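Why do we care about 3D structure at all? Because function follows from shape, and shape follows, mostly, from sequence. That is the central idea of this module. The next example makes it concrete: a single protein chain, its amino acid sequence, and then its structure expressed as tokens.
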Amino acid sequence: MSAITRSVVLATTLLSICAPAFADSVQDARLQGSVQTALSLNRMLNPFRITVQVQDHRAQLSGAVENQIERDLAEHVALATRGIEQVDNQLEVNAELSERPLELRAYAQRVEDATLAAVVRARLLWSRTTA
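And the structure:
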């Protein structure tokens, strides 16, 4: 067998062995990005630093949230992500997170809060029963 033939056979063998592992890691990275995006887009969860790791369609959530409801919500959001079959929810509940200063909250949340406050004030000002 010539050296070129041996090299081609070796390369083909290595490629067939490595390709599934590479495909799995790419799939895991895609799923991890999908879960992280879903958590970031959720206005209840985006103020928190939640770390996501994915391996074999199983997501692991770590970090801290303010209460049990947000912990459960993060798990449900991860499970709702297409391709995630199980969630290992290691999020800790830390009630002290609710006392964070306003400037540490997400910008989008501050804008949404200000908009809601303006709508409520305007409706109260224009209401005949509260004027």
